[in-house]
């Protein structure tokens, strides 16, 4: 066992300690009564007053569209913004596997408490109990809501809903629609929102990017956007602002995120005073299609549900790695997850499956073509499943995923085992929020992947769709009213100094991008940043590596502002300009992620610090030192953030070393 | 492989456009079509030419944002989205023409980017089930026969990319609409609004400037999600029945 480092003194050059943070919004009652009590305690806004209140929602994925639909139905004036050409294209649409809910339709021992327990444990005891219990509690209502909207979930022949099981869990509580659950849920939320657009309660702004938050007297009162088609800079004022802008995995350049996913909205809010929680927690997903070459623009995920029937293996001997896998006999294969984790087997949580795949490849037992000096792949084999279930049953269950794999790799996965490798997927960190989902800026809320709250240091499968819809349909509409009930709010004038300042900073930033006139494109900086992040702040982090990464990022950022090249103009569709703004923010976020990872001298969930592991290579937490949320404050200097700690107190679940053996 | 690309360049909605020729060398067959355009764009930027604007987002074939006419085919020669089209579908020495979707209802924004918000307005006109949040009954209170659920799902696979419109000589949006009408019409939850839905959607479709359907079938042939042509028959059936009941 390696101990934590004791050179805390040298960390003081990277950040300063701030005052502790406490979330006091959850009522002080038993956890099972907490949400009911909170809904009662939160003030009401009478229906006639709701239409006088303006709500801005940025992002129209599962969290944003469901929030917009629900707030619109309730009668508020909603403006919903997204950078895509239609709300239906948000990246939630790409989620494949499913959505959890504690319905216990299979009577296999599931309950609200068990979903709560699994999620806290799965997050490696780094999430907030109160929020997670509420998530488990409202999960069942999500399924009812979506079914009523016509979401075509998979069904049994009796006409009832079908379930399957996901990583880190021993019950079947995952509802799904083939491999396209995210799409179907998003279309449901999108349709609900479009219904409100027709009803006039929601105004939709597509191809609009939020570039600044307007903060008046310490309170969020609006946003500055750029119309991406015309370049117009617009001011939108409101009584409350909700960010539903997703995660920041694209800081790694290569990830499973959509190309447009970015951190700008959250980062602009952070620079205006919103604390950023646990930025270093990145989920690496174990089942992605391996990188094929230098041209690669993104990585494609193969649903985790494949691990229900597929068996993961590598050759026992390194010299077998270039053989046709079908020629490697059973006794020469190492089904390493089944061997090391007999209770969970191929269904261990994502962080564990990912790290073990990396270990196999690091040992020289990876498969597939060499990229650099390494073979970065392990087999995901369906031969046994095809023999057991028949090819047509496998096709019915996973056909679209198999087709996608074949298209990308040019190989037939029905004949040859798939090759998979871990890739950056989901970011558990995000804007710090309290139990009400309010950030540290009053009047600014963050929902879905954009906040940090529910997944701790790791995210279990089928839990992100659940969190996004829980926040959007049920939680936010019930907590935000407590804030809105303080209205009516004094109107902010368009020429208020804070509004003018926000708008001016957007304009001067754009002018600066266009006037540097250097040699390198935004993409080239982004790719280089991504390499640094993956190498030093990816699946495994070390003290020395993180310090090096921080230096590299600072150097890269200096070069960016000196040597960037953006062609075209500000007054038209300009995709290079859009990228430049996002890369500039990624360059600052990347450094904060490394500082956060550096200060957290323990391993937990998606954060694996090499210096902190058990004798058999599992993540070793240090609850006595690190059972807190790291909430970072921006000080005006990206190199010197302030760390506020929110202690995590576990009253209902006992902290244990996570074991899946 | 080496390729000759003829790509539509158009500075803005009101500008006139033209095909510009670019030579590509050393294209890997493992690249997606869009990655090939990324490589070209990086080269153009280095040369001081503005990169070619095109839409893409998830690059996993599901968001529906990408869509190019490639040598006359919506999404190119394979039946897939443009982001999932790989260069192994082409041969060394090929000349490839790349254009935006062509339809009055999809005005060009710039280069290969078009405005498809007409589809959103069709959905706004009635492509939903009216249920307020929190008003839903227990999910198991309404069983749905598996064949109906499966058929609803097959229609719900539509990603709204607009390839059907681009492929249709009439620029009709009937496959898109038929998919939605079939999806919601196959589940019990969709029944109360079924007649009103189809009438409203068809009205909006016509208002947006999409053409009528003359059963050519190019739409279903080009659809990357293999939405079957019979969703249009379903739409017509629902339309007749709704019109009859409306009188």
UniProtKB/TrEMBL annotation, chain A:
GO MF, any single term: steroid dehydrogenase activity, acting on the CH-CH group of donors
Primary location group: membrane
Keywords, comma-separated and alphabetical: Cell membrane, Electron transport, FAD, Flavoprotein, Membrane, Oxidoreductase, Transport
Catalytic reaction annotation: a quinone + succinate = fumarate + a quinol
EC number of the protein: 1.3.5.1
Cofactor: FAD
GO cellular component entries: plasma membrane
Domain Fumarate reductase/succinate dehydrogenase flavoprotein-like C-terminal: 526-660
Domain FAD-dependent oxidoreductase 2 FAD-binding residue range list: 54-465
Active site: 350
One Pfam family named in its UniProt record: FAD_binding_2
Membrane topology: Peripheral membrane protein
InterPro entries attached to this UniProt entry: FAD-dep_OxRdtase_2_FAD-bd (IPR003953), FAD/NAD-bd_sf (IPR036188), Fum_R/Succ_DH_flav-like_C_sf (IPR037099), Fum_Rdtase/Succ_DH_flav-like_C (IPR015939), SdhA/FrdA/AprA (IPR030664), Succ_DH/Fum_Rdt_flav_su (IPR011280), Succ_DH/fumarate_Rdtase_cat_sf (IPR027477)
SUPFAM superfamilies named among the record's database cross-references: FAD/NAD(P)-binding domain, Succinate dehydrogenase/fumarate reductase flavoprotein C-terminal domain, Succinate dehydrogenase/fumarate reductase flavoprotein, catalytic domain
Similarity field: Belongs to the FAD-dependent oxidoreductase 2 family. FRD/SDH subfamily.
Protein name: succinate dehydrogenase
Organism name: Janibacter alkaliphilus
């Amino acid at each position: 066992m390696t101990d934590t480092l004791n050179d805390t003194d040298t960390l003081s050059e990277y950040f300063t300690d701030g005052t502790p943070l406490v979330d006091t919004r959850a009522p002080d009652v038993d956890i099972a009564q907490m949400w009911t009590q909170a809904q009662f305690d939160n003030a009401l806004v009478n229906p006639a007053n709701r239409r006088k209140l303006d709500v801005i929602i940025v992002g129209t994925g599962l969290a944003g569209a469901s929030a917009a639909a629900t707030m619109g139905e309730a009668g508020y004036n909603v403006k919903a913004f997204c950078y895509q050409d239609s709300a239906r294209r948000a990246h939630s649409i790409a989620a494949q596997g499913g959505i959890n809910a504690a319905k216990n339709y299979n009577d296999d021992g599931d309950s609200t408490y068990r979903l709560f327990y699994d999620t806290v444990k799965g997050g490696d005891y780094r999430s907030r109990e109160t929020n997670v219990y509420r998530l488990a509690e409202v999960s069942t209502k999500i399924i009812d809501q979506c079914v009523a909207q016509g979401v075509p979930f998979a069904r049994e022949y009796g006409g009832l809903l079908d379930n399957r099981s996901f990583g880190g869990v021993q019950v079947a509580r995952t509802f799904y629609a083939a491999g396209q659950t995210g799409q179907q849920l998003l279309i449901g939320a999108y349709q609900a929102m479009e219904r409100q657009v027709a009803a006039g309660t929601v105004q939709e702004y597509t191809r609009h990017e939020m570039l600044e938050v307007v903060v008046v007297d310490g309170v969020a009162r609006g946003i500055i956007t750029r119309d991406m088609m015309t370049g117009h800079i617009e001011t939108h004022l409101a009584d409350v602002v909700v960010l539903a802008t997703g995660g920041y995995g694209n800081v790694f350049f290569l990830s499973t995120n959509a190309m447009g996913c970015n951190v700008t909205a959250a980062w602009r809010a952070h620079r205006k005073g919103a604390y950023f929680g646990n930025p270093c927690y990145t989920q690496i997903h174990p089942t992605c299609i391996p990188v094929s070459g230098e041209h690669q623009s993104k990585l494609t995920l193969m649903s985790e549900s494949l691990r229900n029937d597929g068996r993961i293996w590598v050759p026992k001997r390194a010299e077998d790695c270039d053989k046709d896998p079908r020629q490697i006999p059973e006794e020469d294969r190492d089904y390493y997850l089944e061997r090391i984790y007999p209770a969970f087997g191929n269904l261990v949580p994502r962080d564990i499956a990912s790290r073990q795949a990396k270990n196999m490849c690091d040992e020289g037992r990876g498969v597939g073509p060499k990229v650099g000096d390494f073979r970065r792949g392990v087999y995901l084999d369906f031969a046994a499943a095809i023999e057991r279930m028949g090819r047509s049953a496998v096709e019915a269950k996973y056909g679209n995923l198999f087709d996608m794999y074949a298209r990308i790799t040019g190989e037939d996965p029905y004949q040859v085992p798939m090759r998979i490798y871990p890739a950056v997927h989901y970011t558990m960190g995000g804007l710090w929020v309290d139990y009400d989902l309010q950030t540290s800026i009053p009047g600014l809320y963050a929902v879905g992947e954009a906040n940090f709250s529910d997944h701790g240091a790791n995210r279990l499968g089928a839990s992100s769709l659940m969190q996004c819809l829980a926040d959007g349909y049920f939680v936010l509409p019930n907590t935000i009213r407590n804030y809105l009930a303080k209205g009516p709010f004094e109107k902010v004038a368009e020429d208020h100094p804070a509004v003018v300042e926000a708008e001016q900073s957007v304009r001067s930033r754009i002018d600066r991008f266009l006037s540097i006139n250097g040699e390198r494109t935004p993409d080239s900086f982004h790719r280089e940043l991504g390499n640094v992040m993956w190498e030093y702040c990816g699946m495994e982090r070390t003290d020395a590596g993180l310090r090096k990464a921080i230096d590299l990022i600072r150097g890269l950022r200096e070069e960016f502002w000196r040597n960037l090249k953006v062609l075209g103009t500000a007054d038209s569709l300009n995709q290079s300009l859009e990228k430049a703004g996002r890369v500039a923010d990624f360059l600052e976020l990347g450094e904060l992620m490394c500082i956060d990872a550096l200060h957290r001298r323990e391993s937990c969930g998606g954060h694996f610090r090499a210096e902190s592991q058990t004798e058999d290579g599992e993540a070793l937490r240090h609850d006595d030192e690190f059972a807190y949320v790291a909430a970072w404050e921006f000080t005006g200097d990206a190199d010197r953030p302030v760390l506020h700690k929110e202690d995590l107190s576990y009253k209902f679940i006992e902290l244990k070393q996570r074991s899946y053996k | 492989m080496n390729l000759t690309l003829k790509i539509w360049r158009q500075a803005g909605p009101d500008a006139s456009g033209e095909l510009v020729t670019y030579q590509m060398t050393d294209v890997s067959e493992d690249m997606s079509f869009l990655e090939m355009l990324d490589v070209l764009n990086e080269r153009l930027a280095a040369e001081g030419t503005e990169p070619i604007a095109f839409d893409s987002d998830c690059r996993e074939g599901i968001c529906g944002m990408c869509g190019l006419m490639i040598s006359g085919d919506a999404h190119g020669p394979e039946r897939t989205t443009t982001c999932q089209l790989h260069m192994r579908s082409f041969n060394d020495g090929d000349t490839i023409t790349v254009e935006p979707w062509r339809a009055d209802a999809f005005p060009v924004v710039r280069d290969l980017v078009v405005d498809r918000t007409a589809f959103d307005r069709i959905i706004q006109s009635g492509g939903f089930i009216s249920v307020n949040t929190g008003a839903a009954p227990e999910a198991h209170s309404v069983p749905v026969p598996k064949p109906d659920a499966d058929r609803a799902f097959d229609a719900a696979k539509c990603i709204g990319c607009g390839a059907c419109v681009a492929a249709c000589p009439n620029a009709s949006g009937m496959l898109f609409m038929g998919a939605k009408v079939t999806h919601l019409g196959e589940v019990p939850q969709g029944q109360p609004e079924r007649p009103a839905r189809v009438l409203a959607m068809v009205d909006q479709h016509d208002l947006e400037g999409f053409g009528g359907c003359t059963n050519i079938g190019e739409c279903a042939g080009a659809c990357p999600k293999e939405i079957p042509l019979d969703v249009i028959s379903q739409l017509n059936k629902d339309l007749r029945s709704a019109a009859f009941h409306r009188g």
